[in-house]
Design brief:
By secondary structure, the chain is an alpha+beta fold. It has one domain. It contains four helices and nine strands. The strands form four sheets. The protein has a three-stranded mixed β-sheet. A two-stranded antiparallel sheet has the order 1-2. The chain is elongated, with a radius of gyration of 18 Å.
Length: 148
């Protein structure tokens, strides 16, 4: 099964009501933010959810592997997204399919080798596994090569 098929099935499962998003609220005029809605609100909520989820799928980040030390390399690739807009526990499905799942606001890719680098701390002793050069992220291996 391809990644595209898996992602489309996830979005469709939410729209059909089989699964709920991890964490998503829609804005309904006169009602404010709602989690699910009833009747007419439900239709508006599902339309907003579908747009948000499809946008996340279209803008999915991708890296072939980790450049960051200490991470087990995935069989297929590392994926970055705002997973709140996709089904709860969907990360488990992707991990079984061979992908590593990371949050798009915490990770980026090396501009040279396209491997994944963590850009936000995950603990007190965290140190960046990249260098920022002219606004570009370079993993430590590529930064070392560039300096030689």
């Amino acid at each position: 099964m391809t990644l595209e098929t898996i992602l489309n099935a996830a979005v469709n499962s939410m729209i059909r009501g089989h699964h709920s998003p991890h964490c998503f609220s829609s804005w309904i005029q006169g009602q404010g933010y709602i989690g699910k809605g009833d009747g007419e609100q439900r239709r508006d909520h599902l339309e907003q959810l579908e747009r948000a989820a499809r946008s996340e799928v279209e803008n999915l980040g991708f890296a072939g592997s980790y450049a960051e030390p200490g991470y087990e390399q995935p069989r297929k690739a590392v994926l970055f997204a705002d997973w709140n807009k996709l089904p709860r526990n969907f990360d488990r499905v992707l991990e079984k399919a061979g992908y590593a799942v990371e949050w798009s606001d915490e990770w980026s890719t090396c501009n040279d080798c396209n491997r994944a680098v963590r850009t936000q701390p995950d603990g007190y002793c965290w140190t960046p596994g990249y260098r920022e050069v002219d606004g570009d992220f370079l993993c430590l291996d590529c930064a070392k090569k560039a300096a030689e």
